[in-house]
Predict the structure.
Amino acid sequence: MTAFGAFFGGFHSFFSIWVFCLMQIVPFIIAFIAASTIREGNPAPEKTDWQPLTLSAVSVLGGFIAVFTAIGMVTTPVSKILFRYMDLLNQFGGVVIGLIALYFIGLLTLDKLPGSKMKALLTGFGALLGASLAVAYKPCVTPTLTVIYNINTSPDNVIWGGILLILYTLGISTAILLVGVPLAVFASKAKSANIRLYLKRGCGVLLLAVALLMLTDKMTIYKSFLVEGFVPAAEDGSGHSHHDHPAPQAQEQAPAEMEHTQTDNSQHEHMDHGK
Amino acid sequence: MTENGTAVTQDTTGKAKRRNLIILLAALAICLNGAVNFFESRKNSAELIKLGTPLPEFSVKQADGSAVSSASFKGKPVIYYFFANWCPCSHASIGYVKKAVADNAQNGMALFSVGIQDSASEIEKFTKKHDMASPVGVSGGNDVAAMLGIRTTPTTLFVDANGVVRWIFIGKIEKYEAIQKGIDAITGGVVG
């Protein structure tokens, strides 16, 4: 697995059948970026305010990348702690996202803050939201992620495995930005103040929905709905097909990638036999 | 007009502050409730799986209500298969796992499957579809997954006769050769 392979694997997953699995996080990240960019009231903005858009995008994706990578580096103490307190973090994350949602809906109000404090608050909100979504996200093991996860199961590969996870999530993040930024810009340029208000509140409602899913521990039901409903069924290893559709991973799997998985497993064996 | 306007603004501000306080108190209550529930259950207190170390013991319930424990497999090489019915990769991989167990029957290899991230009825559908005769945990799997640090399906563990985790494969098994080294690691390379 090369660095570019990890980045491209993440990027490509957004434009493949796996996007349905990514729908566990994508709408909510874009909703946050859009809601942070939309300005309420009149007059309508003549041009896009790039500062809140950039701050919100960098902070939410930064928080997501940091925590997703930390969880995925399964042989490190940080990952063990995150796993141990996953249920608790999921609850706290739900509360954090819920509060952000209520802020965008307009039910939770803040006194007028000076620009610098508002920027700090936005950045903090974004980082917490991204981190919370990383905790709630139950990733599908795409072909690339299969290789990266299997590299990460060996303590010998901890640094390289972590770098690959960062690059993989950077690839996903780049794809999210490609779609999310134009949507946020489009929403923020609406001429009517009412439309901008409804769009912002709509983003808040979307975030409230994911907060409720997290608080009620129903994210896996949402994931199963997405995957079962939209990702084609696969053949089992005996060659019996349960549906007529080809297996999505079989379509995407590059032979070289599986070679790497086997190589990585060989490393495990050497390590184990050495013990 | 100014006096009235000020009064209205103060009233609005007062209402907003009360609403903020109620929301923040509710958030605090949810956090406290979550923390109390978590520390009461302490369900994630065991060690996570690690290559070269013993698999922590766990128990799950089968479809007939009986409990099955990992401890009952001691002395046998075991493949532990964590799956979900909605997961296409779980369906795609199970055939290879069953073949591995069948090929190594003379080595005493056993299969212990655990459904996670799914309801018991959905997990039962998976077991019927794949005609699984070996023990399958249909409930309690999520707690086990959290305890072991398993987050994705399918995850396949290869555990030797001493109960030591010798191999972990995360994700879809594309071909039998992909798990051959895991099989060898727990059978000593002797084909049953």
